[in-house]
Specification:
This protein is globular. Helix 1 packs parallel to helix 4 and helix 2 crosses helix 3. Helix content is 14%, strand content 40%. Strand 17 and strand 18 form a beta hairpin. The longest helix has 21 residues.
Length: 510
């Protein structure tokens, strides 16, 4: 099989410099055909991209950089089996390729369409269209949490476009979601204004990071004898307390559990000075936290999101270890502070926040999947197994969903009135910015559909800028968020509201 990429010669970019495309682990040959330019780019765009490379990316090259060595001439469709046309030019009606794909950005073809969406204030919804019959074969909305500037946003969009193209060309069935195109803020900036604003924001962030730990997550908890967040669809009810932290550590991803008659909350514990997370825990009584935070699991690599599951009379943990490239299962050999690595459930992939549920006789493992490029929070992969130890098999349509607003897991599945629900991270306004509650209306090894029913954002009931985990154990509900955390007492004197105790009202947390 030969895949042909049609790209504009005058605006060749580094992401186009490829000889193969990875499809289900196989490197399939790619032939680049350089086509004439359909329409010019904004003046000075390459100079602006170079400025961003130097300032925002500290000199590191990226996929949006110009490809300097470009073969001359253009080739005809030839004997290519499949064509992916990244230009805005019309398809040659005499082309004999059996599949002709066209990526659209907010419904329009070509790089200029992607740039226009970004300049209007958002990343575009991507459609992969079959030009022969006009059908939409896949659709997704990428997340931009790692996109630096205009060039970074373009690179992110094109990286996720390639993810979707590879999924379509794999021949596996695609699940095309209904996604609304972003309306834009109506203040479409020119590239110069966009880049200047982005550089100013980057400088402001650097100054902020010099003064404060960023991000600084903190955990909220409360006892609730009522229905709770899942029943109300909001954060109303008893007031939220904040679990105190030492300031140079943040606490995130809380998972509560009662085991052997004791209740503990397990969470990511990250030392800002080192930049690596471990798993820690604290005991809860009927009155709140008891004793001190204790470390319970540490590895040479970063750990977070300590998903807990009971199975066959044992307690297990699957902490996120996506930087290591696997999904590992740990067995509790002494509760709560001794865990041993027991098995590797999945390997050779980036899968964040693995979360398992049992449904219709099978185990299903959900995670935020990444193929080495693009955002970390927009692609959902599902695996299924007869038992916890596997073997785990991929869903027929992985990645089953590409949508920054409803993909990444945010806590345990919940069954209410016979219906299966999952909390998800809504990263439309940035990583971990908000939560959504999604009803899973169809789930099998070959099908998946969810409907987001409720959205939860920080506000008067939980002040701050972020909200990205929700869990409950009996009366105990836990969430997390972020606040301003100065690095020194001198700075802290200007932010007195950020100093919290072990049981602080959320109104004192920013």
């Amino acid at each position: 099989m030969i895949i042909e990429f049609r790209c504009e010669r005058d605006y060749a970019r580094q992401w186009m410099a490829r000889e193969t495309l990875s499809i289900d682990g196989r490197d399939v040959p790619v032939r680049i055909v350089w086509a004439p330019t359909a329409e010019p780019r904004p003046a000075g765009l390459d100079a602006l991209f170079e400025l961003e490379r130097v300032v925002l990316r500290k000199g590191k090259h990226g996929g949006a950089d110009r490809l300097k060595i470009v073969p001359e001439g253009a080739q005809a469709c030839g004997a290519a089996d499949m064509i992916v046309d990244f230009t805005g030019a019309a398809r040659d009606p005499s082309c004999s390729a059996r599949l002709y794909l066209r990526p659209l950005f907010n419904g329009v073809a070509g790089e200029n369409a992607a740039l226009a969406a970004i300049l209007a204030g958002d990343l575009p919804v991507i459609d992969i269209v079959n030009e022969v019959d006009g059908s939409v074969l896949d659709r997704g909305h990428p997340s931009g949490e790692i996109a630096a500037g205009l060039s970074g946003a373009l690179e992110t969009v094109m990286a996720r476009t390639l993810t979707m193209v590879a999924a379509v060309l794999s021949g596996r069935p695609r699940i095309v979601p209904q996604l609304a195109r972003p309306a834009g803020n109506g203040l479409r900036r020119g590239p110069v204004g966009y880049v200047a604003r982005g550089l100013a924001a980057s400088i402001a962030k650097e100054i902020y990071r010099l003064c404060c730990y960023a991000p600084h997550w903190h955990i909220g908890w409360r006892f609730n004898d009522g229905g709770g967040v899942w029943q109300t669809g909001d954060l109303s009810g008893p007031g939220w307390n904040v679990l105190g932290d030492p300031g140079n550590h943040f606490y995130a991803d809380p998972f509560p559990i009662t085991w052997q008659g004791r209740t503990f909350v397990f969470f990511e514990d990250l030392d800002h000075r080192i930049g690596k997370g471990i798993i820690s825990a604290i005991e809860f009584s009927d009155a709140g936290p008891v004793g001190e935070v204790m470390p319970v699991l540490e590895e040479p690599w970063h750990l977070s999101y300590p998903f807990l599951i009971e199975d066959d009379g044992e307690l297990w943990m699957i902490p996120e270890s996506s930087t290591r490239g696997d999904v590992a299962l740990y067995k509790c050999v002494r509760f709560p502070d001794k865990w041993e690595r027991y098995a590797t459930l999945l390997s050779g992939l980036e899968l964040a926040d693995a979360t398992i549920t049992r449904h219709n006789g099978l185990h299903y493992l959900f995670g935020a999947w990444r193929d080495g490029a693009g955002g970390y929070s927009d692609s959902l992969a599902i695996y299924h197994a007869d038992r916890l130890l596997g073997p785990w098999l991929p869903h027929a349509s992985n990645p089953v969903l590409i949508d920054r607003a409803s993909t990444r897991p945010a806590g345990n599945f919940v069954t209410l009135n016979g219906k299966l629900w999952r909390p998800v991270q809504d990263c439309a306004d940035g990583y971990g910015a908000a939560l959504a509650l999604a009803e899973v209306v169809d789930l099998s090894p070959t099908a998946f559909k969810q409907i987001v029913r409720h959205s939860l954002k920080p506000g008067p009931l939980w002040p701050g800028r972020k909200l990205h985990t929700l869990n409950r154990c009996g009366r105990l509900e836990v969430i997390d968020g972020s606040r301003v955390q100065p690095k020194t007492r001198a700075f802290a004197s200007h932010f007195p509201s950020t100093v919290v105790s072990a049981r602080t009202s959320p109104s004192s947390a920013v």
